Amino acid sequence: MTDRLDAQFAFLIEADKLKQVIRATTLADGSRRENSGEHSWHLALYALVLADQAGPSVNIDRVIKMLILHDLVEIDVGDVPIHSANGAAHGSAEIAEAEAQAATRIFGLLPADLGTDLRALWEEFEAAETPDAIFAKSLDRVQPVLHNIASGGGTWTEYNVTFDQLETRVGQKVARGAPTLWTYVRGRLRSFFPEV
Amino acid sequence: MTDRLDAQFAFLIEADKLKQVIRATTLADGSRRENSGEHSWHLALYALVLADQAGPSVNIDRVIKMLILHDLVEIDVGDVPIHSANGAAHGSAEIAEAEAQAATRIFGLLPADLGTDLRALWEEFEAAETPDAIFAKSLDRVQPVLHNIASGGGTWTEYNVTFDQLETRVGQKVARGAPTLWTYVRGRLRSFFPEV
Lengths: 196, 196
Prior knowledge:
mainly alpha, two-stranded antiparallel sheet, 10 helices, globular, metal-binding (chains A, B), HD_domain (chains A, B), YfbR/HDDC2 (chains A, B), HD domain-containing protein (chains A, B), hydrolase (chains A, B)
C-alpha cells in the first residue's frame, strides 16, 4: 500500500506543474493569461453546467474525467495555441508525438493499473471519435471563445484571426459535439466579425 | 434555449473569478500561492487518482462534482485559511452565513433547476455528513499537507502550527474519510514535527 501511495502522490505532485503552464487565452476579465490547471477546472465546470447540450449517448461523468486529464501532457510539451503558426502547429504530427511521449512519462508515474486506465481516457479524448470525447472537445474549443468575447477580442486580435479561420478551427469542432451551443455562440460574434 | 444559455454562461463567466482567489498554501514547489480555481482542479484529480482510498459506499463521480464546486463561494468570501486566527476563523458561524449568501448569489445565476441541483451538492459537501462529502473533505484537507511537505514547511511555519493542532484541524478530518491515507501521510511528517 505504501508503494502504491508513493506512486499516486508522485503523480499528484508532478501534476501540480500544470498550474505553471501558461495558455494564450486570458481570464475573462483580460487581466492575465490563464494557466492550464485552472483552465482544466473551468472546463470540468463547463461540463457540469452544460451537460444538457450533450447528446443522449454522452456520459457526462466520463467527459468530466477526460477534461480533468486532458492537458496534463502540457507539463512537458507546453500549450500549443489553436491560432498560432497560422493554425498549423496545433494537431501537427510532431506535437502529437511529443504529447504521446509526455503521456508515457507522466501517466507512467502512477501504479500500472491506474496509469493504464487514465492514459486510455486521455487517448480517447485526443482521438475525438467517441461521443464523450467529441463533446469534451466541443467544450475545450468553446471556452476560449467566451473569454475572447468577454475580454473584447483577446487572441483573435493578437493572431489576426478571420471569421473563416474561427469557423474552421473552432466552430466546426464545437458544432460537432454541441450544435446548438455553436449556433448560440456564433450569434454573439457579430460585433467582432462583421461577416457573421 | 437562448435565455437558458445566457444564464449558464453568466454563471461560467462569473465562476472564472475563482482563479483570482488566492489561498494560503503555495504550489508544491513553493514558487507562489495557489489560487482556488487551480486548487479545485487539483482536488478533482486527487479524487480520480485516490478513489481506491474511498469506502465502498462512496460514489467517486459525485465526489468529483462536489470538489469542482466546493470553493465557488470564495468568489465573494475569499479563502479562509485553516490555520488562520489560531484555527478559529475557518468554520465560524459568521463565515458560514457569508458563504450561504454567496451561494444564493452565485448558484442563483443559473437556470433554477440547475442552480438548485448544484447548490444541493455544495451544501452536502459543507455538511460533511454523507460518505461522498466526508471523502471529499478528506481530500480537501490532505492536499495542502502534501504541498507543505514538498515545499519544506509552508503554512505550518507561517502560522506556527504544532503537531497537535495539525492532528485536530487536519488529521482527524482526513482520517474520517480516508484512514489509511492519513496513516501514510502522518508517517511523512516526522522531519517537520519531531513529536510524530
